[in-house]
Specification:
By secondary structure, the protein is mainly α. It has a single domain, classed as Winged helix-like DNA-binding domain superfamily/Winged helix DNA-binding domain (Arc Repressor Mutant, subunit A, Orthogonal Bundle). The protein is 43% helix and 8% strand. It has three helices and two strands. A two-stranded antiparallel ribbon has the order 1-2. A hairpin with an 8-residue loop joins strand 1 and strand 2. Helix 1 packs across helix 3. The radius of gyration is 14 Å and the shape is globular. The model has no long low-confidence stretch (mean pLDDT 94).
């Protein structure tokens, strides 16, 4: 899944948080719904403008961000 076609960052929408193109729904919001136990079916039912590919794009975006995260130890 190429999330880059479906996720965008615009500083004029939700202060630049990544959103699903054409909506004001942030990736964070969709991931939070999934973390709260919402099923894909529940999300699609409550947000009729969304499709399964949008949820997959949110997960792909989150996966790529986490994969690129680096943690460096602090020396004391």
């Amino acid at each position: 899944m190429n999330w880059k076609r479906l996720i965008t960052l615009d500083p004029n929408i939700l202060v630049g948080k990544p959103i699903i193109k054409g909506t004001r729904l942030s990736v964070e919001f969709i991931i939070d719904l999934l973390a709260q136990g919402w099923s894909e079916e529940e999300i699609l039912k409550n947000y009729p403008g969304l499709e399964s590919k949008h949820i997959q794009a949110c997960l792909g975006y989150a996966s790529d961000i986490l994969r690129s995260e680096r943690v460096y130890p602090l020396t004391v």
